Every structure is written in C-alpha cells, then in structure tokens.
Amino acid sequence: MAGTGSRDRALRERAQAVIPGGMYGHQSVGLLPDDYPQFFEKGEGAHLWDVDGRRYLDFMCAYGPNLFGYAHPEIDAAFVRQLGQGDTLTGPTALMVQLAEALTGMVSHADWAIFCKNGTDATSMALTVARAHTKRRVVVRAKGAYHGAAPWCTPRPAGVIDTDRAHQIFYDYNDVGSLEAAVAQAGDDLACIFAAPFKHDAFVDQAEPDPAYARRARELCDERGALLVVDEVRAGFRLSRDCSWSRIGVQPDLSTWGKCVANGHPISVLLGSDKARAAAASVYVTGSFWYQAAPMAAALETLRLVRETDYLERMTALGERLRQGLAERAAAAGFGFRQTGPATMPLFLFDDDPDLRRGFCFSSEMLARGVYVHPWHNMFLCAAMTEADIDAALDAAEDAFAALKRQAGALPPVEKLAFLTAGAH
Amino acid sequence: MAGTGSRDRALRERAQAVIPGGMYGHQSVGLLPDDYPQFFEKGEGAHLWDVDGRRYLDFMCAYGPNLFGYAHPEIDAAFVRQLGQGDTLTGPTALMVQLAEALTGMVSHADWAIFCKNGTDATSMALTVARAHTKRRVVVRAKGAYHGAAPWCTPRPAGVIDTDRAHQIFYDYNDVGSLEAAVAQAGDDLACIFAAPFKHDAFVDQAEPDPAYARRARELCDERGALLVVDEVRAGFRLSRDCSWSRIGVQPDLSTWGKCVANGHPISVLLGSDKARAAAASVYVTGSFWYQAAPMAAALETLRLVRETDYLERMTALGERLRQGLAERAAAAGFGFRQTGPATMPLFLFDDDPDLRRGFCFSSEMLARGVYVHPWHNMFLCAAMTEADIDAALDAAEDAFAALKRQAGALPPVEKLAFLTAGAH
Asked: Are the Cβ atoms of A94 and B39 closer than 8 angstroms?
C-alpha cells in the first residue's frame, strides 16, 4: 500500500479486524495496484475524494450507478422529499405504479416491471421466471459473462456446490455456432438464453454484439419456446434510452436493470413482455426493502433526465473524445493500447501485457495525476463530465504514458494477478 | 375491494397493467381482507396513511424495519447528511468499518460483518459460507420457517427446480428428536443448522425457543464440525440488544440481520465468529449498492438508539399491555383468542377458525377503527408507540370483538385462504 495515505492505511487495518479479508466483492481493491485507495470520503458530480483528501476524476462511477453525477441536486432532492413523506412502509406507494409505467413506456419490449434491490435479484428472478414459464431447467449463457454473485452465477465458486450450477450450458459470446451447439445440447429442456448487451467480461477485450448472433439468439428462443434475457444491469441507459439490443433490432422477453436506474439509489428491475407475465405472477419473490418509495422517486427523476436531456449524446461524444485522444497519445508514446467496448463504457488493455504490469503502472500514474481508471474492468463515463474533464484526463494520460515508457523495461511482475498467466505456460 | 377507497382502487387497476398480478411478495394484499389498502401515502412515528387519507396505528411496522418510528428525525438526518457527502461511490467509506465495529461490539458471537441489502442476501450468504467452511453440502432447517425468497428457500416454488432445493433436510422447530434425526440423515455431509430465534411461521401459533432444543442444535454443530446459523432478520433488536439466543445462553457461529438495522433504510448483515472468518473471506459476494454509505450512517444512529435508550423495555411493556388488554377483552366477548410469540412481535389467531374467517372479520373491524393488524403473520411493535396508542388499540379491539360477535354466526368462508383447509378433510 505504498502510495496510500495514512487514513486509508489506518482504516484498512481496522477493517482487517471486522470485515473478512479486509473487504469483499467488487469494491475490494485487492486486485488493484497497491496505491489505489480503499476508502472514500465524498463524491460530487464526476469527482471523488478519498479519505486522505485526494480528489479524482472518477471513470468508475461507482461501477455504474453514477450516471448523472454524484450527489445530483434534482435526483437527491426527489429522494429526500419522498423520504420525509414515506419510504419503507407496510405497503408500496403510488410511485411503484408510476415507475413501472415510466419504464414500460421507455423500454420497447417491456409490458411489466418487478422492482428489487440487487442486480443479482433481477438476473436470478429472470432465470426463475423463465423456468416457471417453460417448465424447463436449462439456462444457456456466455462463458465468462458476469450476471451477478448468487451461487448459480458468482465468478468465484467457494461455497458453491454442484447442484447450484446444474442445468447450465455455456457458449462463446458472438459465436453463432457455439450458441447453436449449446442450445442443441439443452435439447427439450431449454428455459432461456442469457446475453449481455455487449461482451463486458473482466481482463479481456470487450466486444460489441454481432447482430447475427443477437438475431440467432432470438430465433432459437422462438423456435424452442424459450425466453431471451438481456442483462442490462451494467450497461442500462449508457447505450440507449431503450433496451440496448433495440439498436440492432432484437427484442428480448426479459431484461434486467440496476446500477444507474436511480443514479446510485438502490433499486433494480426485472422487465418483461406479456408472454412472461403469467409466469412472473406465479413466482414468489420479495425483499424487506423492495417497496421503498424514496429510491423510486429518485428513479422517476433519473428517467426524466434520461428522456428529456441529451445526456447520452453528450456522454458518447465525451467517450469518443477520450478514445481518440488516448489513441493518439498511446501511439505517440509507442504503445499498443487497445480501447474496446462502447465509448461510454471503455476498457483499456496494453498489448504484450499478460499479467497487466503495464496496465497497473499506467493506472497508478493516472491515479497519481488525479484520474481514477481501472486496469482490467470496464469503466463508465457519466453525464456530469465535461470536455475540460476529458482534456484533463488526456493531459494526465500523456504524462502517464511517458512515465510508463521510462519504467516499461523494469516493471515488476504483478503477483496478485499471477492467476492470469498461471495457465499460459 | 369493497372497503377500499377510490385512489387505492384506481392504483390497483393501473398496477394490474404494469406489475405481474398487480403486486408481488409480502406486501401484496392478495391474502388479506378485501378492505385492506394496497397503497400508502405517508408514514410518521407509529402511524401510516393510505392513499385515500385514512390514518392507521400500524402494527406491521413495514413488516419489521420500522423500529423507532417512521421518518425518525435523528436517523433520517444522519442519512441525509451522509447522502449529501457521498452514498454509492466507487468504494466504501469509513462508515463501513465503524458499522462493523459497532455490530461486533454489540453482538456477542460476532467478530466480523458483511453488509448486503436483502435479508435473503444474508441468509443465502450464511449457507454459502457454511458450505465453504465445511466443504459439505447439507443444510438442516425447520419445516415451514421463512429464511427468504431465493430459489433455495422461497415458500412458493413456482420456477424453482429440483437442484435448487437439493441437500436440504427438515426438522420440526423445538423438537430435539426431529432435529437429531435430520442431523443423522445428513451424515458426514452436514454444513449447517439454520434456526429462527423463535418459531414465527405464518398461519400458525408462534413458539418461543425451547432452550433444550437450542442447546442441542449448538452441540450437534460442535460434534459434527458444522455451523449454527440464527436468522435474526425478522426479530433482530426486538428481543435483545444482542443475538436473541444469548438470552438462553446459546451462541451461533453466524447470524443474519436485516429489516430494522437502519430503521427502514436498506441494509442487511451477515455476522460471524472467527471460526468462519476464512470461509467468509473466500466466498465472492457483492451487490451494486452494498457499499452505500447513507444507510450505514442511518444504521450507526439506529444502533446508538438501541444501545442508549430504553426502547426495548418500553416496547416490551407496551406489548405486554396490549396482550393483557386483548386477552381480557377477548375473554369478555367469549372468544378463544390465542396471542403467541414475544410481546414485541405478537400473532393473533382465533380458536375454531380454520380458514381464518374470524381473524379476517376482526382484522377488518380493527382496520375500520384505524388500527392496522395482520390476520396470519406476526406483527411488530415499534418504539414510537405510546401507552395511549395501545389503549386506543384496546378500545378499537373491544368494539371489534363486539362487532365480530354480532357477525360470527354468519361469516362467509375466506375463499382466498381455502388452501389452509383444503388438505384438512
């Protein structure tokens, strides 16, 4: 933790005592460079402050939820107004109906909504609804794709048992042949096909969806009477104001949403078409806080901004400005630097960098210059970013590439990522 | 919906279009009397207002979360302060460490904490941690006990498949012989025993835990190297300021918390002892909003009130006042009226009432008099209630028993609860 400040170090020591391993889940910095801070103090707009007072332009956006800026005045005001009126009550408020109407009005395939808290709630419910609808068991899903952290899908299988993962068959994203083979293997037991809006796996290049693959997934579901699930939890409203596969003309039966639906307030959603309505009504799903009104008020305000502002066009333009600027600077410095995925959710990987030592060095150099980037997970732009922010990030990158160039020949191995290369030799 | 007002009726119609079945989960009024409102407008202290402006003394307390009163000034102020500072960020704040320290300082068996959103997150994680710790599969749990709504435990199995429920063996709560038989059947594959703090199943009398049963559960886990899990999600801090089995001298390895930890703000917790720490650090669990700071600020303030006020003694005294007053009034009216479970979480059932027609009639008569009670689920007192509230409820009950007496001979069957008696003849 060489570079981290003293408050962060002190908190990590205290956390070691009362949190298993010191931190858990996707916000653990266990697999990030040692100088990345674990604990934060404040968020405002596109910026974050760590507990040692250092300010960052934040390209992680809370791993997605921050779409319009941290502590957004209108969204948080809507939340706080509703909090004073009624939040977690003995039943829902009218906001639940209004929010379901708003979402089904925006997302083409959707006729109904079920609200929950975690993205994993929505994906797990999608699977249960598909099984109820088809009376079949098998889910066909892409190898390496993240659909949550329940035992059926968590990426690290400690504590997961054989039966938790039963009735799953995997395909390679964008590979029609492998999708067809998986579906054939499922035979007459196919309940659903899961797909991410684009390939956004960790540690590898991202990929846009091939329309032929998306269309074939739709056809196979129709031929087999199975349901197509598009998991928008990570990408929702950063590609489209609708389900993102609308852009390639493919409508799922179910889509799962979370993260940015209420700009950081906790709510996730399963949306479905009429075909799956009876099955959705038959499953028993619930949670202590699923009927909470204040996050629904925040979601209604967030969706209003999604519909009524040019946030998506601005964010996309900023992402393209970033991409082009980085490409120029990487090339000038002589690095093979791959930027993949949509402009609003980029991933950076260096060529010839199997254990990410270049990525780690570059990320640390960016961090030292006040720009928080991620060396192996897709990043997120937000609508609170400005051209000046992007230009500041590009200035930082120019210096970071130069610093990397000075160190590139002598970078130490990244021991915490040794698993990436362990099978390679 | 004879008794419901016009705004409620209109919202139900709109909900039918955009929410499967019109509503889902435990806050659906589908299995409540027809005059119960589905939608609420406001909560304040111990009272609720429905969307038609009717005010109720609320004995459901949001099904648990409302411990200190709706819209509690200090708790919500702590939340809002933190919201302005930073809530869902790219990493946690210092509050996560503080909250883990506060909980492990209060709950005797606990050495560490993992925070999540749903009660089901905590119970499912407990199972995963137990399986990781033991490298075994079987969970032994009480028949009819509610531990959440994931496929492994949801009470209504639509969409649930065979493998979701594999490796589970059931016992009868408080029955040492049946517990021993279940453990014997698990053989060398026992991962954990789950227990509720007391028997709080729906539709049947509640029961306090028999200390002999609790001690035997502990012994069996120790003999077999399995983990004991006490599921405090529903009962936490309404029986004790510690894990509730501390009162009978039994410490679990894991305990699950939710509902009232932040007085309605969304947070749940898995607490564990050192024995399970390595296993807990090995599992991959996470959620988009699990690191949210504002609910942690609310939780810290809630726990301060738990520690520093006499809320528990006051709430218990109010519950006893209610119980005694109802017993007197029921007896005077000539009804066999069973009040079971702890005074702070009562359940009412009438004798000779297999399809709950008396319970439905009594509940409706209470509702008409401004008191929201539940005919088949345990209720919850909160610390915002006063002796005057309880006395008002008792006055309502005197009238409600009289009204029930007038109607008792001619009550219609409760068709929506026909399943309760379908197997009885």
From this structure: yes
Are A287 and B117 within 8 A, CB to CB? yes
CA distance A190 to A135: 9
Domain B6-70+311-422 in CATH: superfamily? Aspartate Aminotransferase, domain 1 (3.90.1150.10)
Q: What residue spans define the domains of chain B?
A: 6-70+311-422, 88-292
**Pairwise CB contact (< 8 Å): B131 & A161:** yes
CATH for A88-292 (3.40.50.300, 3.40.50.720, 3.60.10.10, 3.40.640.10): 3.40.640.10
Q: Mind listing the pLDDT tens digit for each residue in A59-114?
A: 999 999 999 999 999 999 999 999 999 999 999 999 999 999 999 999 999 999 99
Q: What number of C-beta contacts closer than 8 Å exist between A and B?
A: 360
Instruction: Return the exposure string of A328-355: e unless at least 16 CB atoms fall within 10 Å of the residue's CB, then b.
Output: ebbeebebebebbbbbbbbbbbbeebeb
> Phi then psi for A371, rounded to 5 degrees?
-125, 120
Q: Judge whether residue A375 has pLDDT over 80.
A: yes
Answer whether B128 touches A (CB < 8 Å).
Answer: yes
The interface residues of chain B toward chain A in range 172-201, judged by CB-CB distance below 8 A, are none
Question: Pairing mode, if any, of strands B40-44 and A337-340?
Answer: unpaired
CB atoms A90 and B259 under 8 Å: no
Q: E strands along A111-202, which residues?
A: 112-116, 138-142, 168-171, 190-195
Rounded CA separation B40/A54 (Å): 44
Can you say whether the dihedral through the CA atoms of A334, A335, A340, A344 is positive or negative? negative
Q: Report residue B130 as tokens.
A: 């137990």
Question: Which residues, 6 or more positions from B51, have their beta carbon under 8 angstroms from its beta carbon?
Answer: A93, A94, B5, B7, B8, B11, B37, B39, B40, B41
Q: Is B27–A86 a contact, with Cβ atoms under 8 angstroms apart?
A: no
Task: Please indicate whether, in this complex, the C-beta atoms of B113 and A18 are within 8 angstroms of each other.
Answer: yes
String of DSSP letters for A246-298? GGGT---SEEEE-GGGGTTSS-EEEEE-GGGHHHHHHS----TTTT-SHHHHH
Angle at B216 between CA B215 and CA B218, to 5 degrees: 65
A251: tokens are: 């409508």
CA dihedral A26, A161, A18, B256 (to 10 degrees): 110
The ranges of chain B with pLDDT < 50 are 1-2, 425
Kindly list the distances between the CA atom of residue B422 and the CA atoms of A42, B355, B356, B375, in Å, as whole numbers in the listed order.
58, 10, 13, 19
Q: What tens digit of pLDDT does each residue of B150-202 get? A: 999 999 999 999 999 999 999 999 999 999 999 999 999 999 999 999 999 99
Distance CA A105, CA A233 (A): 18
- The answer to whether B235 and B196 have CB atoms below 8 angstroms apart is yes
Q: Does B138 touch chain A (CB under 8 A)?
A: no
ipTM of the complex: 0.97
Contact with chain B for residue A284, Cβ under 8 A:
yes
What CA–CA distances, in Å, run from B412 to A402, B335, B360?
Answer: 83, 18, 10
Closest chain A C-alpha to B295 CA, distance in angstroms = 10
